[in-house]
Each structure stands twice: as C-alpha cells, then as structure tokens.
Amino acid sequence: MSTADGLSGRAFPMSSGSGPDQRKDNLGVITMAGNLTLTDGHSNWLRLDPAGVRTVTLPSEALSNGLWYYIANNADAAEAITVQDDTPATVATLLQNQAAFFFCDGVTWYSMGVLKSDGPTATPALLQSATVTVSAAEILALFATPKELVAAPAAGQWLEFVSAEFFYRWNAAAYTGIAAGEDWVVKLTNAAGAEQSAHIETTGWLDLVADARRFVRAKSAVGAVGDSTPVLAAPLVLHQLVAEIITGDSPVDVRVWYRVHTGLV
Question: Which fold has domain 128-262?
C-alpha cells in the first residue's frame, strides 16, 4: 500500500520509520519574513504567522500529483495570506484565523474550502482593546465628524463591540451648551451606522470641573430588540447623537474592548 508523499508527490510505503520518505509534521507556528514558495522541504501541515500581507506559492502542478497541504493563517492581527499556484492564479485567500486544505491532481491545485474562525481547528476570536484620545476640537465637532475608535478589519471580517471606558481629563474649561439628547454612542461605519453601545449621557459628566470616568457596555434593551447585524470591514466610531456642544477644552481618553470575527456563516 502506498500514498502520496507530502513532500514531493512521489509514492512511498506507509511506515513508522524516520527515513527520507517519512512525512514531516509541523506542530509549531512559522513566522513568515516574506512571501513563501513551497518546496519538497516543507511540511504538509503549515501553521503560518504572516507578519504582514503575504503570498504562498504552491509547487508546480506537473510535480505535485497527489500532493496536499493544510495551511492555517495564525496571524495575531488582521493579515491575509493569498495561496496561489505557479501561474500565478489565486487558489484561496486565508484571512486571520482561517485555514484550508489544498490538493493537486497533477494538472490543477484545488482548495477544499476555507474553515472559519469558529471551525474545529481555528483560533477563537480573542478579546482585544484599543485606546484613543478624543481631543477637545474633535468633541466640539463629534456630531458632524465621528471619531474612529477601532480601524476597519480586513475584508471578510467584522468587529464586535464589547464595552468601553471613558476618562474625561479636566483641563481649564468645562463643556457648556450641552442640549438635551447630545449624548454619545458607539456605532459601526459612520454617523449613519448601527448603534453598538448604550447611550453615554454627557450632561453631568462633560460639564464637570474635575476628572471623571464613565463606562458603557454593548447596547441592550429590556423587553425590546437589542441585537445588531454584523457589517464586514466596518470600523467602530464614536458619534454624538444631536447637534454640537458649544465650548470646552478637555480631552477624553477612550479604551474600547472588542473582538474580530471572520465570515458571516
């Protein structure tokens, strides 16, 4: 009985030895320093940290009949790996926490489909945080120009807002002219995007003459609909719901907790 050699595509007897025909397994994550062209020195099982946007080129089809690879993108950020043949033509694109099997019939390389972040071999979406400062000038224009809190993830990915902490750093002049409804909210995409957080009341906070903190969670609604539809490749932004605050000079530091998910299914 024989099977395809995972290194060169030639047939080899099944054995438990460690000779030159023994299939090699990669149990660790390889950090890529650049694009990668696969050769007979690479394992069938490749867990790659691209450390940037990278390309992996598969071996020549004529030398790869029966050859297969399992390639996983174990990036620690929103970095994609394009897997291509030697034409070059793209066979599949693996986003962060995606993986796929690739096999060749001697003429064409095929992908058996991409495993999503909730698949059995992929990494779950981890809780992350980002910290930004909203300047006084940005606060006074927050209705017209929302402040980006978390940059848009890669294509095919979406952000889940979890919670945020706001630290009002008192400077010299409290904010005045805060009208009813001039509250803050975290949204997706832009001012017209879907609300992701509960509303943050600015009266009794931004008009203080001392440092003050506020904390907000993802939106919820008792006895009403409180869900949110994911939006691919959309940032999280901070928006003021009504008009602009008139004056004030104190910045606000915002720390946001979020997750990055891959795919909608």
Answer: Jelly Rolls (2.60.120)
